[in-house]
Write a structure and sequence with these properties.
Blueprint lengths: L4 E6 L2 E6 L10 H14 L7 E6 L17 H24 L4 E5 L2 E3 L1 H7 L3 E5 L3 E3 L13 H9 L1 H10 L3 E2 H7 L4 E3 L4 H13 L3 H12 L3 H19 L2 H12 L8
Parallel strand pairs: 2-3, 3-4, 4-6, 5-7, 6-9
Antiparallel strand pairs: 1-2, 7-8
Helix pairs in contact: 1-2, 2-9, 3-4, 4-5
């Protein structure tokens, strides 16, 4: 297993940590593959009753690693296609786990990190956390199930507004809009997350698992269809001139100049 994803199990709680702090935990191919492997491994464990997903360092997950996206469009599309396959498999795998999944969000949750947080069963955020869809700044549509989860949390119209404008939302904004369950002081995030996970882990596991399944089980087929559609839309965008401009603008730290 790559050390870009760390797994620690303690007192029936699995802590899954994105571990590229020098890149704000941006997702590269190795990290996406490792995440899938970790999630698949958790599915066969009977000693895990809650799962915490978190980021090392100053960020939760700052989306995909944009340095992978430059150069030839077809080469970029091939890399991104493989990355999305692993990322989407992990997204479905987290939903299928009997144990509830908690996203513990410190710092930035952007792009794929935003979608990843939305896909957790419960989201707890530091008061310094930020949430940024970011996709359209690159000239792409969303992935990671964002178009599936966000409308269910805030409604279709508000979700579309959030994705189209691509702005940055504070933890307080996220709590007000309803896509975060709790906001706590940054200094207390680790402790509050551990207490929440421990409380869930003390529950009667058959009842907990069935409660989760009743909430989301009927939507799993729909999620997989949506993820397939997201991948197709994303790769179509990757092959466009606007994506090339979006990546160049991001790497140059300037506003994009899209031509349509």
């Amino acid at each position: 297993m790559s050390d870009s994803i760390l797994l620690h199990v303690e007192a029936r709680v699995a802590f899954v940590t994105f571990n590229r702090p020098e890149r704000l935990n941006a997702i590269d191919l190795a990290m996406a593959r490792a995440l899938r492997e970790v999630v698949e491994g958790l599915s066969s464990r009977d000693d895990v009753r809650a799962v915490v997903v978190r980021g090392a360092g100053a960020a939760f997950v700052a989306g995909g690693d944009i340095t992978l996206f430059g150069g030839d469009r077809e080469a970029a599309a091939a890399t991104i296609s493989e990355l999305i396959d692993h990322f989407h498999a992990a997204t479905v795998g987290l939903q299928r786990l009997p144990a509830p999944v908690i996203a513990s969000v410190n710092g930035a949750a952007a792009g794929g990190g935003f979608s990843l947080a939305l896909g957790a069963d419960i989201r707890i955020a530091a008061d310094t956390a930020t949430f940024t869809p970011a996709y359209l700044r690159l000239g792409t549509s969303p992935d990671g199930g964002g178009t599936f989860f966000l409308p269910r949390l805030v409604g279709a119209s508000k979700a579309l507004e959030i994705f189209l404008l691509g702005g940055m939302y504070s933890a307080a904004d996220a709590l007000h809009l309803g896509f975060v369950n709790r906001v706590v002081p940054a200094a207390d995030l680790e402790r509050e997350t551990a207490q929440l996970a421990a409380a869930i882990a003390r529950g009667a596991m058959p009842a907990v698992a069935r409660a989760k399944a009743l909430m989301i089980g009927c939507d799993l087929d729909a999620l997989e269809r949506q993820l397939k559609a997201e991948k197709e839309a994303f790769l179509t965008c990757v092959r466009s001139r606007d994506f090339e401009e979006g990546v160049a603008a991001f790497l140059s730290k300037r506003p994009p100049r899209f031509t349509g």
